[in-house]
Each structure stands twice: as C-alpha cells, then as structure tokens.
Amino acid sequence: MASETKYKEVKFLSEPDVGGVEESDGYATPEFNNRSAAYSEAATLPIGSPSVEEKLQEWERDRTSEEKRLPARGGEVGRCEGCCSCLLRANHKLPEHPTTAQHLKYSLTCPPHGKVGDTLLWVVMVLTAWGCLVCITGRQALPGGNLFSLAVLYVAAVLAARLASAVAMPPLLGSLLAGILFKSVPGINNVGHSVDVYWSAVIRNLVLVIILLRAGLGLDPEALRKLSCVVLRLALLPCMVEAVATALMTKLLLGLPWLWSFMLGFIVAAVSPAVVVPGLLRLGEEGYGVEAGIPTLVIAAASLDDVLAITGFSVMLGLTFAEGSLGWTLAKGPLEVVAGLVYGAVFGALCWLLPHRESKDRPAYKFMLLFCLGTLGMFGSYKVGLKSSGPIAVLSLAFVTGLGWRRGGSWDAEVTVYYRVLWEVFQPALFVLIGVEIDVGSIDTGTIGWGLLVLVVCLSLRVATSFLVVAGAGFSLLERFFIAIAWLPKATVQAAIGSQALDYVRQNDGTAEDIFRGEQVVTLAVMVILVTAPIGAAAIKLTGPKFLARRRPSDPLTQA
C-alpha cells in the first residue's frame, strides 16, 4: 500500500500541477481549474462550464440588479411616456359625431396627418427649396431680391385665387387684384417693385405659349365644318367690330397713333375662355342649352376669336416697331405672317413622325416636344428680328400638329390633359404679373376716364353684333341674348399680350413717349379684365338657367 502511494506521488510529480487529486474507484482523477484544458465528450462546452439554463438565469439576475441600481432613470422614462401619450394619435379616437374642438385637437396629434400633415410637409419643402436658392443665388432669393418677390407674388396669387373662387368669382380676378395690391399698397409695394421686368416678360411669354398651344390643338376642322358658318360669324365679326371701334375711339379720345390704336383694339377684342368655358360647361352639365348646341358653339368660337385677335395684334406689333424704309415696313408685316406659318407647318409635320408609335410614354414625349418647339418659335422670333411671327408660329404649329394626329389616328387625349394642368399651374403667375404692372398711384386719370367710355361703347357694339350674327341659326330670342352676354368676358388674352408692347419698349430703350403709351395700353387691358370678367361670369351664371331651355330628365339623351 505504501509502495502504491509512492507510485502515485512519483507519477504526478512529472506532470504539471493543474489541480488537486481525487481518487475514485482506485483511479486518480485530477480536479481541473483551467476549463480550456479538457472538454466533454460532446466537444461543445468545456468541462465544468455552466449550462445554458444557468447562463440565462445569470443574465436575468444581472438585468434585475441593474434596474435596482437605477430606479430614478426608470421613473423618469415612465413619466416621459406618460407625458407624450397625450400627443399620440393612437391614444385618441374621434367620436362618431365629433365637435369642432375635438376635430381640432385630433388634427394636432402626432405623427402629423391630414391637412396639418400636408401643410407641414409643404412648409418644410418650401423652406428647404428657399434655403437651396439662397445658397445658390445669394441675395436674389432674400427679401428684396427678384426670386423672393416672384415666389411671394405666386403664393399670394394662388391664395387670392382660392379666396375669389370661394365667393363665386373668377379665380383669375383674385390673382390680378393681388398683383395690383403688391405694386400699389405702401409697405408691401417693395415686392412688386423688386420684380425684374425681363423675368416677368419671359414668364408671361411662356404662359402665352401654353395658351396658344391649347387653342391650336383645340381647333378641329371636322367639328368646325359640322357647326357650319355660325361659328365663323360669331368668332370673326364681333371681334373685328370691337377692334375697329376701339381703335377709332382711342385715336380720337386718347390721341394714340393709328398703329398703337389698332394694336390696343385687338388686345381688347379677344374673349376669355378662362371665364366663358367653365360657366358654359357647368350649364351644360345641368342640361341648359344642350339641345340647341349653345355650349359647343360658344366654346368652339372662343378659340377662333382668340386666334384672330392674337394674329391681328401680332401684325400690328410688328408694324408699330418696324425699322427701315417704308417699303420694308409694309413688306415686313406679311413676311412675318408667312414666316410664322412656315415654321408651324414644317415643325408641325415633324410632330406627326416623332415620337414613333412604339415609343413608351408617347403622350409625355408629344407634350414635351410640342412645348419645346412652341417655346423656340416664340422666343426665337425675337432673336431673328421677326417678333410678331412668334404667336403665329405657335398657333400654326399646334394646329398642324393636331390635324396630323387626328387624321393619322395617333391623337392622345393625355396631351391636352398635360397642357390643362400646366395652364392651371401658370395661370396665377400670368395674372399676378400683369397686375404688378399697375401702380394705382401713378395711373393717368384721363386714361381711366376716357378708357371707361371706350369700354362701354365698344362692349355695347360687341354685344349687339353678337346678337345679330346668330340670327337665322334656329336660336330663340332669349338664347341669342344669352350668346351675346356669354361673348362679353375678357381676361386671358389681355393678360398674356397686354404688356408685350411695353416690354418691347423697355427692353429696347424706347422713348419716354412710347413707355407712356405702353403703360396706357396695359392700364386699359387690366381695366377691361376688372370690369368684364366678374360681370360676365355672374351674367352667365344668372341668365343661363333663365334664358336657356333645359333638357328634361326623361330625355333619352340625358339618360344615355
């Protein structure tokens, strides 16, 4: 026994001392303190290491002790959650019949939603865009700068348009008044005076391109042929009578030169689709005048009326500022008309071929190509010295393009939708910028007084002519009166071309006399809008149900 014990001691003296010795069933088993020295038979955990359950229990004990050591922090978090819970939308539900106060409280809960969320989104986007402009353009985007003033005017125009619409007035009237206020009222007139005249002219010319493209695309020869010569009589004769009468009276009363007088006559003579068309469409939806075809007649004639007025104005503008000999002056007018027609025919034919039929997003490409070609025709005419050919080029371009699309079976209604959306975006800018041209404090009183007389006389002649030209077309007496009244409002064309003469004089360093004449023309154009737009819109709304026959609900066409 002693020798056996001696043997064990000798054996372990030759090995490292890794722990005590424990005897089991006559075998010496070392007690390992270093767990990495031996492993279990499964070769997964070191021998002597705790099990998974023991480790999880250890973690739970550590977490509990940590929470006990930090009681103040846990209470603070709980109080924070309790405080913020009143702002969370998930903790608030509207009753079945909420009050105004409950609606208001719910709209202010978080996260932002509804109109509050939309408003907050726009505020963040506008402030971000403004910050970018300040970083890029510097003082131009700060108060007193051109870009800042344009942005303020546009926002004011949009808000004023919504306010005017809320009181059943044409939205364009609100935008126009906003522009006049920002130019005339002390304290805010710095905004109107800070607008760069070149930028203002460019924006208004872009809007004119949109107007002309929409008018040209809307001219359908087949539809006009079906409506017979009544459309032509209604579109041409009242416009010509009013233009000539205005020219004669302004020459006599205001002392304008003949060319300036006729230029003003064509500006004043154009009817406004922006006022006429919505009112007639609303009456048509209610069944008034549909059987007689009055809404279709007036809407179709409105486009032709604008085409004639803009074409006449363009010719007069070219003759007024023509330079050179008398022979060149006389030849330049027809030359500019021919140049515009050739441009429209050539590039309109190009739009028949491009984009090709297999092209993806073809309506969008059509819209962009036509708009770019129209813009090139408008601004390019100024660069080549044929300024009055621009509107004619854009009109003929849209007409030829639409003609080819209809005959070739490639008409896409989405194109007209794009232009309608573009017009709705730019319409407030057009009217607020033409309003900025008017400073009430510096208006010549003689221009206002004689201008009102000219307006009353010429509008009376227009109404009488409109009443006469639709005679014999199968309309009743009251329907003829309504057509004459519907042919009264003016706004769109006057705002688009009313300041072009003044813009040209400013950009070419014209004389003080020409600048005064240009201001007279703008003043009369704005006055025509202020007088006729609200009166015409109200007259259409009030007289339509009284003067027009309404289709009965039992009519099979209505049911269809």
Key phrases:
single chain, 560 residues, mainly alpha, two-stranded antiparallel sheet, 24 helices, 1% strand, disordered N terminus
Describe this structure in words.
Helices cover 72% and strands 1% of the residues. The protein is mainly α and 560 residues long. A two-stranded antiparallel sheet has the order 1-2. α12 packs parallel to α23 and α13 packs antiparallel against α14. The termini are far apart. The N terminus and C terminus are likely disordered.
End-to-end separation: 121 Å
How is the quaternary structure best described? single chain
Which consecutive residue ranges, at least 5 long each, have pLDDT under 50?
Answer: 1-43, 70-80, 553-560
Major β-sheet profile:
2 strands, antiparallel
What percent of the residues sit in helical stretches (DSSP H or I)?
A: over 70%
Overall geometry comes to: globular
Strand order of the largest sheet: 1-2
Q: Rg, please?
A: 40 Å
Fraction of residues in β-strands: under 5%
Number of strands: 2
Mean pLDDT: 83
Helix-strand sequence: HEEHHHHHHHHHHHHHHHHHHHHHHH
Structural class: mainly alpha
Helix count, DSSP H or I runs of 4 or more residues: 24
